[in-house]
Write a structure and sequence with these properties.
The complex is a heterodimer of chains A (256) and B (275). Chain A is an alpha/beta fold. Chain A has helices spanning 43-51, 73-80, 98-109, 114-127, 144-157, 174-191, 202-208, 235-242, 248-254, and strands at 3-14, 17-28, 32-36, 58-63, 66-67, 83-86, 162-166, 194-199, 211-216, 219-225. Chain B has one domain. Chain B has ten helices and no strands. The chains are: A alpha/beta (256), B mainly alpha (275).
């Protein structure tokens, strides 16, 4: 197995807030890594650094063996072709129809013509359990769960090698959350994609992950296979997965 | 630089209440903002000229900026031209110079009021709408989503808006100028008993090519600032609904200031020579 994504000592600060304080992570090709951690621990920032939406202050990020933080704009663009992403709020473009959203990467990124792109978009919508007539609606007419599904269809439309999921189940009822989890697992298996997911939903993490890493205060404090999470031997992880208000993390929260 | 300054302030502790330090930090902040704006503008312009160019989006923006602004710009010009003619008639009649009405109206409208009032009206409509739309796209991560779909937001969102505004504003101002002069003509001939044929002859005689050219150049420059301020503040908005609201206000205010300042500079350059 070769490593698809590798972060080496990545640091990122905003003013005097030090969000990432030396993150080291490695995701093997075809593997699914789930990063867990509380709000504000730097999960989203980690994803955005890998995507190039944020520039880390120091450290190196390798995507498929190539260092991307020092890459030129055009090299970065090339690297972005490998990525798909499902955003927390789905982030659908509300000025265009649902199918145009799904086809966006195919038309703009890959230069497909509209007719072929629409065919693929409708196929991808079907893949996530939505009928073709949903494609003609505007994103604002959809429920939260449907928007997430369209976001997933858009993320997989270009058949990317790497897919990021930013809190895929947040804001959904437990049943819809499980539907999305199943879809993610199926779609990723179909594509053989490498994935990185950030979440604080443990049910989702257990379902999606091959490996789990816990981010706390800008550092990875634990990493292991999914089945090791219950015997992590780490008090922070233990508190997080049991969702207890009492433990080492509470101590930190009380301090200003 | 600001950060370094802040750290310095924190370390020394003495400077905290120093008014000079406050003035300095405000000036440094303003300069940094100006630098960011300039680099934003440069980046946007570079995308206007490099393919791919999204003609459909440019046309859509031209429609939004131009056609939808026609009523408000037209009405502004009509009423301003009419009021101007009335005022000049009253002022001129004190020394029997009612005949200057058509000449002064056309010069005032074409050189100044058409482009400036038209620009301000469009800025109020368009800069705010752009800032609100792009700001919402920013806070709902739609701009990040564009990037992950291999699309440059500058190319897809900002370049079409800038180009559309630069093309559309001169057309709008040309129409505003014609309607403004028409407003003066209507008041002059219907109410003030000026001779209709003479009114038109004097208007045409007074108008020079430089007036029209400067009017349209102004309009294009104003269009650039309208789209630039709307895009810049929207694109860089932070922090949810409140951030978008702030971006919208800042976009309109800064577009107004940019238009008035640019107007002064162009007027001095074009008409500034001793008569």
């Amino acid at each position: 197995m070769s490593s698809m994504i590798k972060l080496e000592n990545v640091k990122k600060s905003f003013g005097n807030k030090h969000i990432l304080q030396g993150v080291n992570l490695e995701v093997q090709k075809g593997q699914s890594l789930v990063i867990i951690g509380g709000s504000g621990t730097g999960k989203s920032v980690t994803l955005k650094c890998v995507l190039g939406l944020l520039q880390p202050d120091s450290g190196a990020i390798y995507v498929d063996g190539k260092e991307v933080t020092s890459a030129s704009n055009s090299e970065r663009k090339k690297a972005l072709h490998k990525f798909g992403m499902l955003f927390q709020g789905a982030a659908l473009f509300d000025s265009i129809k649902v199918w145009e959203n799904v086809a966006f990467g195919l038309i703009q990124g890959k230069g497909l013509n509209k007719k072929d792109a629409k065919e693929i978009a409708i196929e991808k919508l079907r893949r996530v359990g939505l009928s073709p007539d949903v494609g003609e609606l505007s994103p604002a007419e959809l429920s939260g769960g449907m928007q997430k599904r369209v976001g997933l269809a858009r993320a997989i439309a270009t058949e990317p090698e790497i897919i990021f999921f930013d809190e895929p189940t947040t804001g959904l009822d437990p049943i819809m959350a499980d539907v999305i989890n199943d879809l993610i697992v199926e779609c990723v298996k179909d594509l053989g994609a490498t994935t990185m997911t950030i979440t604080h939903d443990m049910a989702s993490a257990r379902k999606i992950a091959d490996r789990i890493a816990m981010l706390y205060k800008g550092e990875i404090i634990w990493e292991g296979n999914k089945d090791q999470i219950d015997n992590s031997g780490n008090a922070y992880v233990q508190q997080f997965i049991t969702g207890s208000a009492h433990g080492p993390i509470e101590m930190e929260l009380l301090k200003p | 630089m600001r950060l370094a300054f802040r750290t310095y302030r924190k370390q020394t502790g003495i400077l905290v209440n120093n008014p000079l330090a406050t003035v300095g930090s405000i000036i440094l902040g303003a300069l940094a903002e100006l630098g960011r704006l300039a680099s934003f503008a440069g980046n946007s312009i570079s995308h206007i000229v490099r393919p791919p160019i999204y003609w459909r989006l440019i046309a859509q923006q031209m429609w939004l900026i131009g056609y939808n602004s026609l009523p408000v710009v037209g009405l502004t010009a009509l009423f301003t031209g009419a009021a101007l003619a009335q005022q000049i008639y009253v002022g001129g009649s004190r020394f029997n110079a009612e005949s200057v009405v058509p000449g002064v109206v056309v010069i005032a409208i074409v050189r100044e009021l058409g482009p400036v009032l038209g620009g301000l009206m469009v800025a109020g409509r368009v800069s705010s709408a752009m800032a609100a739309e792009l700001g919402t796209m920013r806070v709902t991560e739609q701009i990040d989503a564009l990037v992950t779909l291999s699309t440059d937001p500058f190319k897809y969102l900002i370049a079409p808006r800038l180009l559309a505004a630069v093309i559309t504003l001169p057309i709008l101002v040309l129409i505003a100028n014609i309607i403004g002069v028409l407003g003066g003509y209507l008041i002059g001939t219907e109410r003030l008993d000026l001779n209709a044929a003479t009114y038109i002859t004097v208007t045409v005689d007074f108008l020079e090519q430089a007036d029209v050219v400067s009017s349209l150049v102004k309009a294009a420059v104003f269009g650039f600032f309208i789209a630039l301020m709307g895009s810049y503040h929207g694109y860089n908005s932070r922090g949810g609904a409140q951030g978008v609201g702030k971006a919208t206000t800042n976009a309109v205010v800064s577009a107004f200031i940019a238009i008035l300042l640019a107007n002064l500079i162009i007027t001095v350059i074009v008409f500034g020579g001793a008569a």
